[in-house]
Here is the input.
Amino acid sequence: MKNIVILISGRGSNMQAIVEAGIPGAHIAAVMSNRPDAAGLAWAAERGIHTVVLDHKGFASREAFDAALAERIDACNADLVVLAGFMRILTPAFTRHYEGRMLNVHPSLLPAFTGLDTHQRALDAGCLLAGCTVHFVTAELDHGPIVAQGAVAILPGDSAQTLAERTLAIEHRLYPAAVRDFVAGKLEIRAGRVLRQHASPQQAGTLLAPQP
Ligand code: GAR
Here is the structure.
């Protein structure tokens, strides 16, 4: 059994998708949040999942917060840390500690549009495709070996919100699949990239969204 700790800052819909996927061999050891008001915390607690609140406002520095968070995560014997809308910039010491065992989902086709406002920036740039990326976390924000990507076509009349909604539906399929692959030991990193062991595009982690 692999222990998984999921970190959230808000709604936690990706966390819900991962929990509801019922991944064989995965135990959701805890859901943790840096925000006491994160809606996803109540959802997890109602399902009997151990929840932890660690308010970043109570810490003098980013380093002190990350050290305290790592202590909580390690107390769960975490095999995998899953960032699911965890809106914190992480210190190099933290990312190093979880190297090769921490995943993130980002709402763009990385390496394009790291950071915030990804959908609006894709619209402003006149992109024809938007999407999301599941990747291993490294010290550099929204970089790291890519595990899976899903694309959605940008349609006439799209707003950042409609694009975010269609992309989120893809995240909910992509992220549980990536966690399942990690738990099954299928994700191997070599020279900064995830090895593609499978022939079919679906298994290699590429997902094209069905269009409306
Ligand atoms: C998701 O769209 C995720 O890709 C994004 O926040 C949302 C969280 O939604 N993450 C980032 O922007 C991280 N850079 P959720 O709380 O409902 O899972």
